[in-house]
Amino acid sequence: MKRELTPCQLIEQSIQKKYRKNIWSPFITAVKRYQLIRENDHIAVCISGGKDSMLLAKCMQLLQRISDVPFSLTYLVMDPGYNQSNRQKIMDNAELLEIPVTVFDSGIFEVANGTDRNPCYLCARMRRGNLYAKAKELGCNKIALGHHFNDVIETTVMGMLYGAQLQGMRPRLKSTNFAGMELIRPLYCVHEDAVIAWRNYNHLEFLQCACRFTEQYEQVNDENGISKRQEVKELIRGWKKENPLVEMNIFNSIHDVNVDTMVGYKAGGVAHPFLEEFESET
User: Fold this and answer.
1) Can you give the pLDDT at residue 228?
2) Would you tell me how many other CB atoms lie within 10 Å of the CB of residue 44?
3) Which of these, 16, 112, 133, 173, is most buried using a 10 Å CB contact count?
4) What is the pLDDT of residues 174-219, one digit of tens each?
């Protein structure tokens, strides 16, 4: 008699079978290519409640079960000031996915929403600092975030168009403020379309952004939006219609930067104009 699978087992099966090519294999590729996990790592998987971080938690859990490299996981949920329904949705999804979460409060929304000057940037910085601090307190040496392939290429294009700089998003970073801590991005090679397809296939409902700014945006129903990232998403989508390879070309470009052609670059926070080397060339 065939054993009936639980809802969680069906979700896990979809990751490793139905979406093996588009989720599981790219996830494993990133872990191996960028050497994201080492023996005896203790990784805090940071869960915001959105589709990306929930998928990340599930992938990390599945990997831990089969990995030849021993490592431990703590599933960390920071409550920055969610309303009760949003917090409950995170807890319900964690229970459905059988992810044993550790929750702590931070009150970040109250601080970030109290400023008119780039509250999203302030919120992101405060979130990361609080996650690093809590992870270190719990004995972790790494935090894992749910940034995916599209976050990488959108950040690259945004830097050019709105920041006047060429910059990427690395899959692995050493913390400058918390000694011995690293940040890793295991979904680095997973496309957002695959994450959305997986969510919809399993009829899952996750949080979007639950801050007051987002709530106000939804209430006024401003289709033009307020997000530069959304503008870049649409821009890349348009490019892709003309050139299907455009996303991968952007992604590959930050892996193959030809510094010899740059007019200037920064390394370790220090600017280096091309004239430094130009005058010494023979």
Assistant:
1) 85
2) 25
3) 112
4) 999 999 999 999 999 999 999 999 999 999 999 986 555 554 444 4
Round to whole Å and give the CA distance between 152 and 11.
26
59, 24 contact by CB (below 8 A): yes
Residue 47 burial by Cβ neighbours in a 10 Å radius (0-12, 13-18, 19+): buried
Q: Which of 2-6, 162-166, 207-211 has the lowest mean pLDDT?
A: 207-211
Residue 57, amino acid = A
Distance CA 106, CA 86 (A): 15
Which residues, at least 6 apart from 235, have a Cβ–Cβ distance to it below 8 Å? 157
Residue type present at position 213: F
Q: Any residues with CB less than 8 A from the CB of 38 and at least 6 apart, and which?
A: 69, 71
What's the rounded Cα separation, in Å, for the pair 81 and 155? 26
For 76-123, write each residue's pLDDT tens digit: 999 988 889 999 999 999 999 999 999 999 888 777 666 666 666 777
- Give SS3 for 53: helix
* SS3 at position 254: coil
Whether the predicted pLDDT of 145 surpasses 80: yes
Beta bridge mates, 144: 45, 184
pLDDT number for residue 211: 58
